[in-house]
């Protein structure tokens, strides 16, 4: 009986990119992890990370406006939902959901998202760091 080859996933790479306190709720910080530029967002105390590249034409996506989702139930009426969860590309105004990376008008189009954790390092000085997993 021959042994089946096993496939394994590459090891999870972690990058400590910022102190949690440096990214206040409702703000973002653009960081570098490896060779990638990434926007790390604090939405209501939870951290999300997306690639700082618009899939349309390569604009620095995270330099765009962070806003709410505008929804409408009828002509002339609109309301804002999910405040601070949408980033708008600074070049062509394409909007992306920060939590999922999906484009608002075409969910099949997306930008890369990354897992984010906040970890405490138990050393001489305890310091909470935002860690991006790639």
Automatic annotation (TrEMBL):
Ranges of residues in domain Rieske = 15-132
Q: Does the keyword Iron-sulfur apply?
A: yes
- A Pfam cross-reference name: Rieske
InterPro entries named among the record's database cross-references: Rieske_2Fe-2S (IPR017941), Rieske_2Fe-2S_sf (IPR036922)
Concerning PROSITE patterns, the annotation shows: RIESKE
The record's annotation in Gene3D superfamilies points to: Rieske [2Fe-2S] iron-sulphur domain
Which molecular function terms from Gene Ontology are attached?
A: 2 iron, 2 sulfur cluster binding; metal ion binding; monooxygenase activity; oxidoreductase activity, acting on paired donors, with incorporation or reduction of molecular oxygen
The keyword Transcription regulation is assigned to this record? no
Q: Which domain of life is it from?
A: Bacteria
| Record's keyword terms, sorted | 2Fe-2S, Iron, Iron-sulfur, Metal-binding
State what protein this is by name: Rieske (2Fe-2S) protein
Q: Which organism is it from?
A: Paenibacillus hemerocallicola
